[in-house]
Hints:
Layout lengths: L18 H11 L7 H6 L6 H8 L5 H4 L27 H11 L10 H14 L3 H6 L9 H14 L1 H18 L1
Helix pairs in contact: 6-8, 8-9
Family: Belongs to the NOP16 family.
Protein name: Nucleolar protein 16
Pfam family, one: Nop16
Amino acid sequence: MPKAKGKSRRHKYSYNLNRKRLYRSARRRAAPRIACSHIRHAWDPHKSVAQNLAEMGLAEDPNKAVPIPKKLLGMEVETDGQQPGKKLVRKPYVVTEMELEASLPEKKSNTLSRDLIDYVRYMIQNHGENYKEMARDEKNYYQDTPKQIKRKINVYKNFYPEEYKNFIASLKPEKMEVQ
């Protein structure tokens, strides 16, 4: 088969194309991705990042917001006692809402998979506390060692202590009936 016509030809560089202008306009159009909803609602797209953060009372550059004293750097410099001009905070509610959200207790979202819960319950129901028997069980698909099985059972105990107590309590009457 013959080659495609335009593939082997050398590409020429276009000297008349202003690539800086193209890059700048594409960059300017992209809006910043803001994760915090409080900041997102107070954001003004017609202002710069520095102006928006200054209005909210947030720092753009953490090094300028909390400067390292010159004494720690090894150089001692005398200051005149003048503080730099304070910036006007027009949207203080953003900082207060963020502080309130940060002060809330963290919600535990630790859960175990349904398969792991069923596996642990099956092992405890059929073998009790005998981990060596559990390791030889045919339902031990992942070929867990006795220590691995014990660890999984302990994880289940820690995640669901009430459910574990109720499960063990429900097993005791069954053992009484067998004997």
